[in-house]
Amino acid sequence: MKPRHDACITLHTLATTDRARFKSDLQATFTAAAVEELGAMDEPIPSDGDLERSLDAVGAVALDIHADGQRVGGAVVVIDPDTGRNRLDFFFVMTTAHSRGIGRAAWAAIEQRFPETRVWETCTPYFERRNIHFYVNRCGFKIVEYYNTRHPDPNDPDDDGSEQDEGMFRLEKTM
Questions:
Q1: DSSP 173
Q2: Preceding peptide of 46 cis, ω within 30°
Q3: What does the pLDDT read at residue 1?
Q4: What is the pTM of this model?
Q5: pLDDT score recorded for residue 5
Q6: What are the tens digits of pLDDT across the range 123-157?
Q7: CB atoms near residue 71 (< 10 Å)
Q8: Within a 10 A sphere around the Cβ of 101, how many other Cβ atoms?
Q9: Which domains does the chain have, with CATH numbers?
Q10: DSSP letter for each residue of 80-110
């Protein structure tokens, strides 16, 4: 499917000096979505700790997404060249660039940048209908698991199965 936006999408590896700005942009976008659904938040979403773990993971690649030379979002992917099972930890398009096809075009650019990928995996909160629609209907992911209080995420050190975390969908896309 051709994106509605005809901008030239480019990906730029995040410079170490831009890390604080990237984190701030990502947290502002994620927090805005969470506030819309859940109300006021005391802390940014995701937490600084979650972001740092992702950015510092073995195989992590942080990317700035540009449309026509303007920064419009970003992503953190974790690449495993041995297995070809790669993970999308964070993906965001700034709210000012929503609903123009930029996200779909940016995801296509990420897939092209990592052609050795056999399977992409990601997670999204149960309440993020916009994300679920994007991943499933626009990008071809399938929901393969639902983490919740009765089935905590075994790979998340912060998921203790408490009532505070009401659920995350795990999605996969086989290439």
A1: E
A2: yes
A3: 37
A4: 0.86
A5: 54
A6: 998 888 889 999 999 999 999 999 888 877 777 65
A7: 16
A8: 19
A9: 9-174 (3.40.630.30)
A10: -TTT-EEEEEEEEE-GGGTTSSHHHHHHHHH
